[in-house]
């Protein structure tokens, strides 16, 4: 809340000087700061004099290596820089336009999802936000850590639990089901139950009950895991090995030619799992990120067989 005392202080302060101060402290050089602000060197020197009076501190001191910040100037810089960043974001909210936005958006999702969404996503961004570069990061165990560190902007995946302070919203429900390859397994799967090997998707370990029900159907509860992978496409091709089964989303079949998908047998009944979009609440360029998330969700509903989350 803005108190009367703080209001009086701000009324007696030329707030334009704070921008000059931020640039001066960042550059630690009067001439360079003047160029950044489009001012003459003499005008910048006058601003520095006024700032020294305002803060009752020299702020910048001459040294053998140019100019150095005083202790007070260093403390001011720590507070002032994020304050001006927030101010810029407030102003950006009023004028944000994807057509003129610049920068890079880094998103994480599994490889099969990326193969199905990447072409329409690039086409959409080229049309609506040509100044934005996309960076795809393959799904990995450090995805949420990358979000918290600001090294990724969006994570899309099937998660039961999303750690704080990560925010998540459901995109829709996709059917997953146990599956095997008919051509390689039709003679062996039921005949040699002890030889059945499970393939596990690294990020889909939370639906064990469904896996158990399917294994009961095969009378293969004691089956061992032969492979754990963070790549859905790797699991698809691993299924061509004798006596292998895994839990996969139905949409994974879309990356294979039709003659291949005909060779897969779905076991038991499908379950609908929630596809989520996740981000950090303290992310950079929030207006751009919010716009990008809306575009992604729209593309998923257009190109994926998703059911609405009730």
TrEMBL record:
UniProt KW Zinc keyword: no
Which Gene3D superfamilies does this one have? Answer: Periplasmic binding protein-like II (3.40.190.10), Winged helix-like DNA-binding domain superfamily/Winged helix DNA-binding domain (1.10.10.10)
Q: Where are the transmembrane segments?
A: none
**Keywords for this protein:** DNA-binding, Transcription, Transcription regulation
Q: Which GO terms describe its molecular function?
A: DNA binding; DNA-binding transcription factor activity
Top-level taxon in the UniProt lineage: Bacteria
Q: Which residues form the HTH lysR-type domain?
A: 14-70
Entry's InterPro entries? LysR-type_TF, LysR_HTH_N, LysR_subst-bd, WH-like_DNA-bd_sf, WH_DNA-bd_sf
Homology family: Belongs to the LysR transcriptional regulatory family.
What is the protein name given in its UniProt record? Answer: Transcriptional regulator, LysR family
């Amino acid at each position: 809340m803005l108190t009367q005392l703080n209001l009086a202080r701000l009324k007696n302060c030329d707030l334009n000087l704070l921008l000059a101060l931020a640039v001066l402290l960042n550059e630690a050089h009067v001439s360079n700061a003047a160029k950044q602000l489009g001012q003459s060197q003499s005008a910048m020197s006058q601003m520095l004099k006024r700032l020294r009076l305002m803060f009752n501190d020299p702020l910048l001191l001459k040294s053998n290596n140019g100019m150095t910040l005083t202790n007070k100037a260093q403390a001011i810089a720590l507070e002032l820089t994020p304050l001006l960043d927030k101010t810029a974001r407030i102003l950006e909210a009023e004028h944000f336009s994807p057509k003129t936005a610049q920068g890079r958006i880094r998103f994480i999702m599994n490889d099969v999802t990326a193969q199905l969404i990447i072409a329409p996503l690039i086409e959409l961004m080229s049309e609506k936000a040509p100044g934005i570069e996309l960076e795809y990061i393959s799904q990995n165990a450090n995805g949420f850590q990358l979000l918290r560190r600001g090294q990724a902007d969006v994570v899309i995946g099937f998660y039961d639990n999303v750690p704080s302070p990560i925010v998540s919203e459901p995109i829709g429900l996709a059917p997953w089901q146990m599956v095997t390859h008919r051509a390689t397994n039709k003679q062996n799967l039921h005949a040699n139950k002890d030889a059945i090997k499970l393939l596990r998707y690294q990020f889909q370990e939370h639906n064990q009950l469904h896996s158990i029900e399917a294994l009961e159907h095969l009378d293969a509860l004691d089956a061992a895991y032969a492979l754990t992978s963070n790549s859905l496409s790797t699991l698809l091709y691993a299924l061509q090995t004798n006596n292998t089964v895994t839990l996969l989303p139905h949409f994974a079949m879309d990356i294979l030619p039709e003659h291949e998908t005909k060779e897969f047998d779905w076991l038991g009944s499908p379950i609908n799992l929630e596809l989520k979009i996740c981000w950090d609440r303290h992310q950079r360029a929030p207006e751009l990120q919010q716009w990008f998330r809306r575009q992604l969700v729209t593309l998923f509903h257009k190109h994926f067989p998703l059911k609405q989350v009730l």
